[in-house]
Amino acid sequence: KRKISQATCEKYKIYRDETHLRFPYFDGSGRLKGFKIKDKLKNFKYEGTTTDTLFGQHLFPTTGKRIVITEGELDAASCYEAMENWPMVSLPHGAAGARKDLQKQIPLFQGYEEIVLFFDNDEAGRKATEEAASVLPSGKVKIARLEQYKDASDALQANDSEAIRRAIWDAKAYQPDGIVD
Question: What is the Cα 173 distance to its own chain's centre?
């Protein structure tokens, strides 16, 4: 239904058991610590020990050209589906915890030339983008927007991987409000 291939699900180790989707979370050494579990009504719970890492973080190098951060696990997998082999990670606590979750990963982000924030196209996503961008390394942050879809998952379900790629490639440099010359 989500148009995410088996290969991408295997890479991220996403799987479904009965009526739940399970998203594994690993610590900084790559050890499985727990699962975020989502039911059909979008209720979430967590099993295991929580980590400070982002979803998918253990799969990618700590340095590189670009890292893309999405709001949800399915969005990260959808972006990976559209742009295979590029680092695509997501927030463990959604938009509400974006600033706090990303602050814990500043050393990781310093290793990348570009940090692309690709949050949902809704009020919570826009607010989280502003809050998150303000704590990330200056001059590296870009904002990706999908005007015609709520998020990357919706674009992929509409068979529009090109919209995902365009949003990432055309991401605009973050310009904080309120800077007075």
Answer: 18
